[in-house]
Specification:
The complex is a heterodimer of chains A (about 900) and B (about 120). Chain A is an alpha+beta fold. Chain A contains 26 helices and 41 strands. In chain A, the strands form eleven sheets. In chain A, strands 13, 15, 26, 27, 28, 29, 30 and 31 form an eight-stranded antiparallel beta sheet that branches. Chain A has a six-stranded mixed beta sheet with strand order 6-5-4-3-7-12. In chain A, strands 8-9-10-11 form a four-stranded antiparallel beta sheet, with helices on one face. In chain A, helix 5 crosses helix 7 and helix 15 runs parallel beside helix 18. Chain A is globular and about 85 Å long. The relative contact order of chain A is 0.13. In chain B, strands 1-2 form a two-stranded antiparallel sheet. The radius of gyration of chain B is 18 Å and the shape is flat. The chains are: A alpha+beta (about 900), B mainly alpha (about 120). Chains A and B meet through strand 5 and helix 2 of A and helix 1 and strand 1 of B.
């Protein structure tokens, strides 16, 4: 049995000493933040070797909508004389301007983008900028952990800085060049010309922000239905031809049309934020709050920071757990409608958002009385939820509460994860009242409240304004009289009922304004420790040194963020208790969803009737116009033919967020309806959709609805098949020959730290053969030198302490190749540079061998081979650590790569 | 096909950047040509609050500031507010004259020819 952790962690609140958070500051008005009428759109075509050096590029300069110049540019080092001649002839024939890369950078890119303050646009702009750069270095200052690209020699030319934020977004700006921007006369009059950071639009980023979807250029063109669709080409890397140059130009034309279409979509919102400042859905949310005249909390009030410290200590994320592990069980899969907007509305948190301040008071006596008397049934009344605007300090004594701990200390990542456990701790800790109520409802026992603080919103701000979303009166919101969260969901329901596509845009606005922006903390890693002020909940401050710098976002309001997640956990607890009260069980839960399980011996009709009663229990809490319960049965419960008939659905859950839902066909074979790609997303697909595993039936439901790619679907099929059979521990992974190949993950060299992987590989190569920033690399996993798989939990656990008796396991990387098996032949240890033979690399079947056995370390009876009902662990905490936000994980365009060890700032 | 940016357009862009806006207008007289517009420190050069103003109005409104140059109190906030209010009053006083002149013209109180030259 695993040992329970004895150290828990709570979130701390820190600020850079002597520096006010961004929410306190008024936006600077003296800086030009609107581009000139000129726009540069460009695209690059590269070699197909790992260096992906520029060969040829195409561009358009537009003045407004009118084409001012169209041209091509090239890098002479990567083209033959014949290809250059082809390019020249092509350009002459089509009346295009032909420039060398240097000429393009100085006379087009910098001329339009910096000196003429135009807009620079492209698809996947960081990659293209790195292709046209003549040099790159790590960026400093605010853009540290990004890159600085030199486009033209000479310190008087600005460099372009790019900092990767996520798979969908990067920050891009011009660094201030050497030299004087302010004319002498102006300097004598005490005036200073503000720096110009540039206006960059990455179409990938903008499209994701406006639609909440990820696109390639091809899929974006199809989605927007632009006149010029992206063409396919198999001539990459071959001798330049007219056809290939047509393709390159068409890409730029398609990009321009996408920019126009996205700009039009954005214009419909009527937001004041310039287009080039939209980096995510959260940008849209903030822009709407700004449009309604809503000022951030910190702009209205200098909140005592011990309040923030209390709120952050009480902050935990959504609950995700497995109760019935690795056993197929019949379920009805339910989900709360718009959980965060719903709890927002029930607690009346909109009043805090529009309030000009916030007050708080000691409410210990009344909160104790409330907790003593409150019952589950009381929470069927909306009024009861308004009592939950309270934080409480408790001394946990075997109480069921959220706990943040390193449940898997043997794992190298050292990440803290959140569980819902029985906790005993000699230190008093802050929690939301909702969490303490949940403890009482689930166990009958609640912790004693030492202290309680209740919050009251101030008067509505004076400058609030109504808005019409998309300029349409039907989508009117008046922040003074409407609860915007309720209004947005109602609007979405109405639009959906009419089949109006605008419902997707409304959903984005609802999601982006209801939670994330209030708990947004931007994490930065300094090169050396800097002074931070650590605020303690007991109104004490401490100056510490740390490299983990945290900056609250503009609309940071941790009281709202913490109360929301606490109330969501309570809602899930109410659902769990109601399920148990009906004599039912549950298989797993995930933030706002709950799979209700049919107990053995209960008939299906009885099961469905009781689940319906559980669903109906939540009907009185519906704050929306559309009638019905806020707890809904999801589409997976109904026949996939659209008939609307309930169909028996089964769950196979392994660990938190790792589960599948399926029906059984007449032969008893699984028909997968939903599956999670958790723990698989970091791997490159071993085979494509056009090469499926023989012997595994095609999915009945589209893969996009199931939520996984074909190879992941095949894996889940085999896991479920084994689970239904006699040997559930053994999943045969010989169903596709591609699984015998080395398992590879793709990484972008999105930061200097990642690019360092290729340092030894790059060293002997020409500059245009080097893997450069935003180029791709592959990572493999080596077997331990004792021939056992590395990074395996039980192997690591069984290693005796002391100096290991075998050499360190290599860290294999390779330059990118479309065929990872081919790249594996060039694998090298990124620390020593020594080649790593293919035989040392773990194959897909080895990496996936224990996927279906993944332990759920937060629970007992949840180790590798355990099945059935899990049991909550009792954590006896001897130490409480204060930590910051986890760093942005090593990014490979997937969501599931573990945080690097040491990436959580520990403050005490 | 329109051409690339002309030298005149580039100069205009530099002016917009210097002023920090593409829609500059003198807060006193309504002049909009960016080449004659500047930024005026309302509370004096030691404080960063500026407004956009044309060269002529700038000279007019900077003159009274010279009489308050160097004045300060023991409270830096009071000093800032004091300079700011005085500077604002100077601007508003000049605006008031312009508004009155324009209003009188609309009402026909003064002939149009008396609007030539300095309104103050």
């Amino acid at each position: 049995m695993r040992t329970a952790p004895d150290t828990i962690a709570v979130r701390a609140y820190t600020e850079k000493t002597g520096k006010a958070p961004v929410g306190c500051k008024k936006r600077k008005q003296d800086r030009l933040d609107e581009p000139s009428p000129y726009t540069l759109i460009f695209d690059t075509e590269t070699t197909i070797d790992p260096g992906q050096a520029l060969r040829v590029g195409a561009y358009q300069v537009r003045k407004g909508e009118v084409l001012a110049e169209e041209g091509m540019f090239y890098l002479p080092d990567t083209l033959t004389f014949a290809e250059i001649a082809t390019l020249k002839a092509y350009s002459t024939r089509h009346g295009l301007k032909l420039r060398t890369l240097r000429d393009f950078n100085e006379r087009v890119f910098l001329e339009i983008g910096y000196y003429s303050q135009g807009l620079i646009a492209g698809f996947n702009l960081p990659f293209d900028v790195s292709r046209i750069a003549i040099r790159h270095t790590p960026a400093r200052g605010a853009m540290r952990s990004g890159f600085s690209f030199m486009l033209a020699a000479g310190r008087h030319h600005p460099q372009v800085r790019v900092k990767h934020l996520s798979a969908r977004a990067s920050l891009i700006d011009f660094a201030t060049p050497a030299g004087q921007d302010t004319p002498r006369g102006a300097r004598k009059r005490g005036q200073k010309t503000a720096k110009f950071p540039g206006c960059f639009v990455d179409l990938k980023t903008l499209a994701a922000a406006l639609t909440s979807q990820s696109f390639s250029l091809e899929s974006l063109c199809a989605f927007l239905k632009v006149p010029t669709q992206k063409r396919a080409s198999d001539a990459h890397g071959e001798t330049l031809s007219d056809t290939y140059l047509d393709y390159a130009r068409a890409d730029v034309q398609a990009s321009w049309e996408c920019l126009c279409a996205l700009r039009e979509r954005y214009r419909e919102h009527g937001l004041a934020t310039p287009l080039h400042r939209i980096l995510s859905e959260a940008s849209i949310g903030k822009a709407y709050l700004s449009l309604m005249g809503i000022l951030p909390l910190l702009a209205c009030q200098n909140v005592a920071r011990h309040i923030f410290a209390k709120a952050m200590e009480a902050y935990y994320g959504g609950r995700a757990e497995v109760r019935i592990r690795r056993e197929p069980v019949e379920v009805i899969y339910t989900d709360f409608k718009s959980m965060y907007p719903t709890v927002n509305a029930l607690m009346g948190l909109w009043e805090f958002i529009i309030g000009d301040a916030m007050t708080w008071r000691d409410s210990t006596t009344e909160t104790r009385a409330f907790l003593d008397s409150v019952t589950r049934e009381d929470f069927q009344s909306k009024d009861t939820w308004r009592h939950l605007r309270t934080l409480v300090r408790v001394r946990p004594d075997g109480d069921l509460l959220p706990v943040r701990a390193q449940y898997s200390p043997e794992k190298k990542t050292g990440a803290y994860t959140i569980g819902f456990n029985f906790l005993t701790c000699s230190d008093a800790l802050w929690y939301t009242l909702a969490d303490v109520v949940a403890a009482k409802i689930l166990t009958g026992k609640a912790p004693d409240i030492i202290e309680a603080v209740s919050f009251t919103p101030g008067e509505p701000q004076l400058d609030l304004k109504p808005v019409d979303l998309f300029g349409k009166p039907d989508f009117h919101i008046d922040p003074r009289t409407d609860d915007a969260f309720v209004r947005l969901i109602d609007m979405r329901d109405e639009a959906k009922a009419k089949g109006d596509e605008v419902e997707k845009a409304v959903k984005i606005i609802a999601n982006s304004t209801s939670y994330g922006i209030f708990i947004e903390i931007l994490r930065d890693d300094a090169s050396k420790p800097e002074k931070l002020t650590l605020f303690h909940p007991e109104a004490r401050e401490e100056i510490i040194l740390s490299k983990a710098l945290e900056e609250p976002g503009r609309y940071f309001h941790p009281v709202i963020g913490t109360l929301i997640t606490g109330a969501a956990r309570l809602m899930l607890a109410l659902a769990e208790r109601t399920v148990l009260a009906e004599g039912l069980q549950w298989a797993f839960c995930d933030t706002d969803s709950l799979a209700i399980a049919r107990p053995d011996g209960m008939t299906r009709d009885e099961f469905r009737a009781r689940v319906q009663r559980v669903v109906d229990w939540f009907t009185p809490l519906n704050p929306y116009d559309k009638p019905g319960s806020i707890l809904q049965m999801e589409t997976e419960n109904f026949a996939s033919d659209g008939s609307g008939a309930l169909q028996p659905l089964y769950a196979f859950a392994i660990s938190a967020k790792r589960y599948a839902l399926f029906n059984l066909d007449p032969e008893g074979c699984p028909v997968i309806r939903k599956a999670s790609g958790h723990g698989l997303g970091h791997l490159i697909a071993p085979y494509g959709e056009d090469d499926p595993a023989p012997g595994i039936p095609n999915p009945v439901v589209p893969l996009s609805k199931i939520g996984v790619s074909r190879w992941q679907y095949d894996l889940w099929y085999k896991i479920i098949e084994a689970g239904l059979g006699d040997t559930p521990h053994k999943v045969a992974l010989d169903y596709h020959p591609a699984l015998q190949k080395p398992a590879a993950s793709r990484y972008g060299a999105t930061s200097p730290a990642l690019l360092k992987w290729m340092e030894l590989w790059n060293a002997p190569r020409h500059w245009f053969e080097e893997v450069r920033p935003f180029g791709f690399m592959l990572k493999f996993t080596a077997r331990g030198c004792n021939d056992l798989p590395a990074n395996e939990d039980d192997i690591v656990m069984s290693i005796p302490k002391g100096r290991p008796s075998w050499p360190q396991t290599p860290k294999p990387s390779a330059p990118f190749d479309r065929d990872p098996a081919k790249a594996a032949e060039q694998a090298f240890d990124r620390e020593t540079g020594l080649p790593v033979p293919v035989s040392m690399l773990l194959t897909y079947d080895e990496v996936l061998a224990r996927y279906h056995l993944c332990p759920e370390t937060k629970f007992e009876n949840a180790d590798y081979r355990d099945t059935g009902e899990t049991r909550r662990r009792h954590i006896i905490a001897k130490r409480v650590r204060r930590i910051g936000k986890e760093a942005n994980a090593v990014s490979d365009d997937s969501a599931n790569y573990p945080v690097r060890k040491g990436d959580v700032g520990e403050f005490g | 096909m329109a051409g690339m940016m002309t030298p005149a357009e580039k100069r205009l862009e530099r002016a917009y950047r210097r002023l920090g806006t593409r829609n500059p207008i003198c807060v006193m007289c309504g002049e909009t040509n960016p080449h004659v517009l500047e930024r005026h420190h309302v509370a004096g050069r030691l404080f960063n609050e500026t407004v956009i103003i044309c060269c002529n109005c700038h000279r007019k409104v900077s003159d009274p500031q010279k009489d308050r140059h160097g004045l300060e109190t023991f409270d830096p906030d009071e000093t800032l507010i004091g300079h700011y209010l005085c500077g604002l009053a100077d601007v508003l006083a000049a605006v008031a004259v312009t508004l009155k002149t324009f209003g009188e013209r609309l009402l026909g109180i003064k002939p149009a020819s008396s609007d030539q030259g300095d309104a103050s």
